[in-house]
Amino acid sequence: MAVLPIRTVPDPILRRKTKRVISIDRSVKKLVSDMCETLHADEVRVGLAAPQVGISLRLTVICLPGEEDIILINPLIVRRKGERLVSEGCLSVPGYVGELHRAESVTVKGLDLAGKEVRLKGEGLLSQALEHEIDHLNGVLYIDHPGCAETLRKLEPEDKEI
Ligand code: CO
Q: How far away, in angstroms, is 23 Cα from ligand 1 center?
């Protein structure tokens, strides 16, 4: 296991659409384990997408405070419900938070580490993290959302970086 360095803007890998995981082999399992360790290296971290550690694969790890890691391989959002204004930051855009609109809840389909299909419905912070991480897998950063760039402010200690 290893804590991996985080890629930050303007690294072009963050803008690339990722490739689907074809086989959950040893290298993918090692990557997931390193991503989990990297996520837990700092308690403010909520989620991590593979491009943020330099690997352009459709894979993300999310962990909400006090809960187990959620590993999603080839995730897709199949349903979005509602809309709300949220504050958001990102490890790949260090030091800033901005405001944007996210869904109130999302339903995501993907595979777990065993290759089993999972369907997950998230609300609140989980819903926001799912949208944020799946955006990463499509080469999209939160600052790309309409109007967000104008709201950027310096990160305060109580803010979370997704
Ligand atoms: Co991010």
A: 25
